[in-house]
Specification:
mainly alpha, 463 residues, 2 domains, single chain, flat
Length: 463
């Protein structure tokens, strides 16, 4: 009661205003526009003008008190609303949807690791002067040809792809589609995976397979086409690179390095280019995966729930400290702009979830009570629009606020965790491994009451 009296007596904090009052005002404004549209704007303004001053004052006072009470109730429902929108009690198919999304993201990361450590493989090749032991010309030519094949295979690979697509197109123009559809799907899926090949997917989509009864493709031609597609889809570019690097290493161990240095430099430049092209998008996807998903063993039903789970798991993943236990402690150590940013993003997240909940509840009210006021199909449209707005607010703005909050709290954990160690009376270790052991011991102390050999530093007596 004291908290309620504080709020209605003028001490309005940002949380009550933004996460309680504003969502209700927005929802009421939408309903006001709807009612005025139903009864007519002219009639609505005429009705408002016909009210006496005392009636207007009474209605204003009653609505203000009701609005404050509802705001206070909505603000105190922030945790249940957060749990609800995070996926508590959601059906299993939503969890499966998130699992598929996570697997797709992980697959994209794995696909971008083909050239990882390629530069290290070349840098490990040491060419040395071996006077009188020159590499034979035919072996040098073969090695140079192999390196040319590796370096220039990108364009050759696309040429082979185009030729295979033409073969499939010719077969589709002359034979029945029954045996050709699986081949077209394989080539289409491969084209989609090659995002750096412009027009590849369009080329495959242009192939039209039709039913042609009695014109089955001959087995030998089908086998040749399947072999060509396998060559395109399953070609191991990195395998050829590794084989070429092994040939260069063998030559460097047996022959003089004078003629091998240019070959090694070409292969190294190629490896650096391919590895650099993969590193940036791979790191972007890895950061996204770490931001949006927690441990692989646990998956929530919504993206919001998984983002908050990843945030809660971050301290343990980095420093072996239990996030669910020590987040309040870390926030007590924060100060300045970072703490303000965390508070603002938390209030923004509460506001978005409150607004989404108010719109969803309003849609239910419109569907159940609206026909009793005015029997008209417009209520179905109104409910659909409010559900759509609720979903849009939740999907777009809640994820934006949750990710911003997650980044700010992670920064706070990185910057202030050692200050928390000192505040808890523990000496800050000199390296990360020892610090992790300290956090594990502190976590066991707070959760289970086990000291685990934990020692506290001496504090000077307070005067």
């Amino acid at each position: 009661m004291n908290a309620f009296l504080d709020r209605i007596s003028g001490v309005f904090d940002k949380g009550l205003l933004l996460a309680g009052l504003f969502p209700l005002l927005i929802t009421i404004s939408l309903w006001t526009v709807l009612v005025a549209t139903i009864f007519g704007w002219h009639a609505s303004f005429f009705w408002l003008g016909s009210l006496s001053a005392s009636t207007t004052a009474t209605l204003t006072t009653a609505l203000s008190v009701l609005l404050l009470v509802l705001s206070f109730l909505l603000r105190n429902l922030r945790r249940p609303l957060l749990s609800l929108w995070s996926g508590a009690g959601a059906p299993e198919w939503l969890v499966q949807q998130q699992l598929r999304r996570r697997a797709k993201l992980q697959g994209e990361i794995t696909a971008l690791g083909n050239w990882r450590d390629a530069t290290d493989l070349i840098e490990a090749i040491v060419v040395q002067p071996r006077p009188g032991n020159v590499i034979p010309p035919e072996r040098l030519t073969a090695l140079n040809t192999a390196i040319n094949q590796v370096v220039n295979f990108q364009s050759e690979w696309r040429t082979i792809f185009n030729q295979t697509a033409e073969q499939l197109k010719d077969a589709a123009a002359n034979f029945d589609r029954a045996l050709l559809i699986p081949l077209q799907e394989r080539l289409k899926n491969f084209a989609r995976s090659r995002k750096d090949w412009k027009g590849a997917t369009v080329l495959i989509k242009a192939i039209v397979v039709k039913p042609r009864p009695g014109t089955v493709i001959p087995p030998e031609r089908l086998t040749a086409l399947d072999t060509a597609i396998n060559r395109v889809v399953n070609f191991e570019w990195r395998t050829i690179f590794n084989q070429t690097a092994a040939q260069l290493r063998d030559a460097a161990e047996n022959f003089d390095g004078a003629l091998l240095i240019p070959l090694r430099q070409r292969l190294q430049n190629f490896a650096m280019l391919r590895e650099h092209r993969e590193t940036i998008p791979r790191q972007t996807l890895e950061n996204r995966l770490a931001l949006e998903y927690g441990p692989s063993e646990i998956t929530e039903a919504t993206r919001l729930g998984n983002t908050l789970l990843a945030l809660d798991n971050y301290p343990y993943k980095r420093y072996w400290m239990e996030g669910s236990v020590f987040w309040p402690h870390i926030e007590q150590m924060m100060s300045g702009g970072l703490l303000d940013d965390i508070q603002n993003q938390r209030i923004l997240l509460d506001f978005v979830l409150a607004l989404a909940s108010a719109l969803l509840l309003s849609a239910v009210v419109a569907l159940l009570i609206g026909p009793w006021i005015w029997l008209h199909p417009v209520w179905i449209f109104v409910s659909a629009v409010e559900v759509g707005l609720s979903y849009l607010v939740y999907c777009v703005f809640s994820l934006f606020a949750a990710e911003a909050l997650s980044r700010a709290l992670r920064a706070g954990c990185d910057l202030y965790r050692q200050d928390l160690l000192l505040a808890l009376g523990v000496k800050v270790p000199q390296n990360l491994d020892r610090e992790r052991m300290r956090w594990r011991q502190l976590s066991q102390l707070v959760i289970y009451g086990e000291t685990g050999g934990l020692r506290f530093r001496d504090r000077p007596p307070q005067s």
